[in-house]
Design brief:
- By secondary structure, this protein is mostly beta strands.
- The protein has three domains: about 1-115, OB fold (Dihydrolipoamide Acetyltransferase, E2P) (Beta Barrel), CATH 2.40.50.140; about 125-225, Nucleic acid-binding proteins (OB fold (Dihydrolipoamide Acetyltransferase, E2P), Beta Barrel); about 235-330, Sandwich (Immunoglobulin-like), CATH 2.60.40.
- The chain has helices at about 1-10, 20-25, and strands at about 40-45, 60-65, 70-75, 85-95, 100-105, 110-115, 125, 140, 150-155, 160, 165-170, 175-180, 195-205, 215-220, 225, 235-240, 255-260, 265-270, 275-285, 290, 305-315, 320-330.
- The longest helix has 11 residues, at about 1-10.
- Bound molecules: calcium ion (2 copies).
Length: about 325
């Protein structure tokens, strides 16, 4: 099939390709591509199989280049053998469906296989960053195993339209996650409070103009929803990473604490005057890894300065252990 598609490159290559960002440009900001109804040619890498997001027949999948991503849609197009990492030349009509910008090829001859440069790395969402028009169609990731940051399931997955919807906190921004039924992804084990590393394509479902809301994350595979369960060593310890940190620009710090299974832990934040200003764990069984965003127990930002993290562990026989770490809430100088 690929060699057949390669032959078609000569045909597709005749048209001058534009970038995906140029194809989906929306200068007037109404959420509708300005080239709607026009035929364009792009060259972009697939981030999933052609039928992964199609409902029953045809193709619906995503491609992206260095500038942007886009949905490729054709309700009666035959499927063809490409997968994540394959570079395609695609000619089609610019369209829009509930805010989702699409390119709609007219037939198999509108595809050309250009090679397999490999799947792009997901765009790393910053803490507090949501999906926006610029990120629609691109492979995204919320939470980052490399830095120990995660997103937290906020709502129980709810059955909807043959799939599931749930929300997940990325810092203080709620991501709407749409688990499409066609992906076969199970939502077992997902409930509020569960931490995940989330990968998926930026999507949109907004049924009313202007089409500037309703952004989603669309996981492709089961492995795109990775449940994060920190493994904490069984010796009594407290570790603080990412300090000093500047909460005013959305930074948070990471704290790990733990000890023997029999211990219960209380973790508090003490200010310079010796007052407890935040209680991050209260007689909790088992260690944990958590983020602290520099707020007190009333969710108010604390003044800049040094603070003491105080970990208390109480054993079954009532024996009490304590340890401390100094952390610094900083400000960013303009
Ligand atoms: Ca427009
Ligand atoms: Ca859109």
């Amino acid at each position: 099939m690929r060699s057949f598609l390669a032959l078609l490159v000569a045909l597709a290559g005749g048209a001058c390709a534009m970038t995906v960002a140029e194809a989906r440009a929306d200068a007037d900001g109404d959420g509708v591509p300005d080239l709607i109804g026009q035929i364009v040619t792009i060259e972009a890498v697939a981030t999933c199989e052609p039928t992964l997001f199609s409902s029953g027949s045809g193709v619906s999948f995503y491609v992206q280049d260095e500038t942007a991503g886009i949905n490729v849609f054709g309700w009666d197009l035959p499927a063809f053998e490409i997968g994540p990492g394959d570079l395609l030349a695609i000619t089609g009509t610019m369209a829009q469906y509930n805010g989702l910008t699409e390119i709609e090829p007219g037939g198999s001859a509108d595809y050309g296989y250009l090679g397999s440069p490999g799947a792009p790395d997901p765009w790393q969402l910053a803490r507090h960053q949501g999906v926006s028009e610029e990120l629609e169609g691109m492979l995204l990731r919320g939470g980052n195993p490399a830095t120990g940051q995660w997103v937290t399931v906020a709502t129980q997955p709810a059955l909807s339209g043959g799939g599931y919807n749930f929300e997940a906190w990325n810092g203080e921004v709620a991501l709407a996650v749409r688990v499409n039924g066609s992906t076969g992804i199970s939502v077992a084990g997902l409930e509020p409070g569960v931490r995940i590393f989330l990968t998926g394509i930026g999507g949109q479902y907004d049924s009313d103009p202007p089409y500037t809301s309703g952004y989603q994350v669309l996981p492709r595979y089961q492995s795109d929803i990775e449940i994060y369960t920190p493994s904490v060593p069984g010796y009594f310890h407290l570790e603080a990473a990412g300090t000093p940190f500047a909460p005013s620009i959305g930074e948070a710090m990471q704290i790990e604490y733990g000890g023997p299974d029999s211990m219960r832990f209380t973790l508090t934040v003490i200010d310079r005057a010796g007052r407890e200003v935040a209680r991050l764990a209260d007689s909790r069984a088992g260690g944990d890894v958590l983020e602290w965003d520099g707020t007190d127990d009333y969710d108010q930002p604390l003044p800049m300065g040094p603070y003491i993290l105080l970990l208390e562990g109480v054993d079954l026989d009532g024996e009490r252990y304590t340890t401390t770490e100094t952390v610094v809430v900083a400000a960013v100088l303009e």
